[in-house]
Amino acid sequence: MDLSQWIEQHASRAPERPALRFEGNEVSYGELASQIGRIAAALATHGVERGERVAWLGLNSPAMLATLFACARVGAIFMPLNWRLAAPEHREMLQACPPALLIVEQLFADTTAAQQVAPASATSICLGSPVPADWVGWDAFIRGGAGRTAAPAANPPHAPVLLCYTSGSTGRPKGALLTQEALACNADNSIDMHGMREDDRVLTTLPLFHVGGLNIQTLPALQVGCTVSLHAKFDPDATFDAIERERITLTVLVPAQLDALLAHPRWPAADLSSLRMITTGSTQVPMRIIRAVHARGVPLVQVWGATETAPVAACLHADEAMRKEGSTGRAARHCELRIAGFGGEELPAGAPGEVWVRGANVMSGYWDDPEASAKALAGGWFHSGDLGHLDEEGFLTIDGRLKDMIISGGENVSPAEVEAVLLDCPEIAEAAVVGRPDARWGEVVVAVVAPKPGATLQRDRILGLFDGRLARFKHPKDLFVVEALPRTALGKVRKEDVRQLVARLTGGAGRHEERTA
Questions:
Q1: Would you say domain 4-155 falls under CATH 3.40.50.12780?
Q2: Residue 315 and residue 303: Cα distance in Å, rounded?
Q3: Ranges under pLDDT 70 in the chain
Q4: Which member of 116, 326, 329, 359 has the lowest number of beta carbons within 10 Å of its beta carbon?
Q5: How far apart are CA 134 and CA 132, in angstroms?
Q6: Burial class (CB in 10 A: 0-12, 13-18, 19+), 351
Q7: pTM, whole model, 2 decimals?
Q8: Residues 6 or more apart whose Cβ sits within 8 Å of residue 459
Q9: Are both 4-155 and 180-402 of the same fold?
């Protein structure tokens, strides 16, 4: 069963039920099924074969989702591109993984030099007008398949259907291949996590080029038969409007979005009574955000995973959110978690180690990178690179990234632990902690922070936040204030960029530091 059959089943039972709401328009399940059929026919007419890639560069739209389902029907691989990237970054991805078709929203065809990044072997299609020279317009592309029906390909469960690039927060992005089975398994995990029902109204504001926007709620909701309100991109006022007017029951908001809502004048009086929960994740969630959402009576439910896990691997349920504040939950329904030591041995409750994941939702590998794939999937487990620990009940807490661990004078320092203290300060909007090479201690802890609008950060006061809260060796030995931290599309801090920033600000590495033991 390919993913497009989810839509066909709902279309046969309830064709008039709204599937998508977008920019004042409503798309029923019957209409969505018809749109998928037309796009699948157009793909077949243009010679797109099983295993070939269809790249998409554009904001969230019903056409984007319909094209993913059409790819699933004909056996092609949907390859969404991050529209926040620059043309050279797109070019690198497309050269490494040449698509048969490149579909670009006119906004980006006109402004991001997409015409120069399209591989010569690809047909370039423009969604909107005007259509660049030598490109095919979207309407003409669809008309090309008129009168033809693309029969569903006999796709085995392990057939790849989505090639999603990692966020690149710790290095160069890699293309993770997710199969039909992986997306179906992830949907089951999400449905269980959210207690999702046909009458749920789901709001999607995260970009669909990332598994967070696409797979935490959007695709699972369409499997169940919910109505998804889809926004082209996030806007705080539009988010409040949708929640109040459409009586939204479920939504995913990453910490950066939640911060924007909390700072908005509408937050104190906004009608959030329809929300059963808000789901969050993708990066460390400050306790001040958790407390603020819970103070409005809405459970803030954390989910943990990665592009490589589709992403739902661990999650809280609504009835656990307030009791387990700060945890990312237990293993998702169809997943196993292991906390592994340096030798791969399973560690007991409370002991920190690398978080491993096993389940049908895990990727089949990275595109054209067998070495990285073998390393990430060694022993049948996905090695996440995240540092975490389980409590006695099996709830997971993420302590940071293994490669970000700071070793200062032989003592391990988790940046996440230090960042949590900084982010608890109401005057700090963003914080990142990295290690800086030091001649005496090996590494020392350095903090980089950005103030909230209108706030003035005083160095001594910020460094004094750690007194009595963390051991002295964990205290930052240097502090830098910047306007904003470098982040990925979903709000993850680019730690390597922060390290380079610290090196520039201090004139290089290796500076000797004095400290109190």
A1: yes
A2: 4
A3: 110-121, 151-153, 167-172, 489-490, 508-517
A4: 116
A5: 6
A6: exposed
A7: 0.86
A8: 479, 481
A9: yes
